[in-house]
Design a protein that fits this description.
Elements (H helix, E strand, L loop, with lengths): L4 H9 L4 H8 L3 H10 L4 H5 L4 E8 L2 E8 L13 H8 L4 E8 L2 H17 L9
């Protein structure tokens, strides 16, 4: 089964990658690209790639990291400094959640810092440095 146009719109609006969507349906990411083109969708517009995001990494429903950056950064593990965090991401054990979207990088960074302080006080965000 293939995703419908409405499902593609939802996935892309949730900033999922073509690879993430393809995994759900057991197909190649190239097939997802073909479907996006067939339906006349603009993935960059739907993902709001020109915005800066703030996101959370969760492990067993606990917030272990707060980050910010462009839309796809929350999934990248190659740039993680903490080896445990990196391995958990590689193993697919980290879930992510977007909690903010900003026009200016400075605003995203400011909100990220607020959240780090908040979650550190709660004994969470263990992979963030203060």
């Amino acid at each position: 089964m293939l995703p419908t146009k409405e499902e593609l719109i939802e996935y892309l609006s949730n900033k999922m990658t073509n690879q993430d969507i393809a995994k759900i349906y057991g197909i190649t990411f190239q097939k997802i690209i073909q479907l996006i083109k067939k339906h006349g969708l603009n993935p960059n517009e739907l993902r709001k790639v020109n915005k800066y995001t703030v996101y959370l990494h969760l492990l067993n429903d606990e917030i272990v990291y707060v980050g910010s950056g462009v839309w796809y950064r929350c999934r990248r593990y190659t740039n993680r400094r903490n080896s445990e965090h990196k391995q958990l991401m590689k193993d697919g054990k980290i879930e992510y959640k977007f909690v903010g979207e900003f026009d200016r990088e400075e605003d995203a960074r400011s909100y990220e810092k607020e959240l780090i302080k908040k979650y550190k006080k709660l004994g969470q965000a263990k992979f963030n440095k203060i």
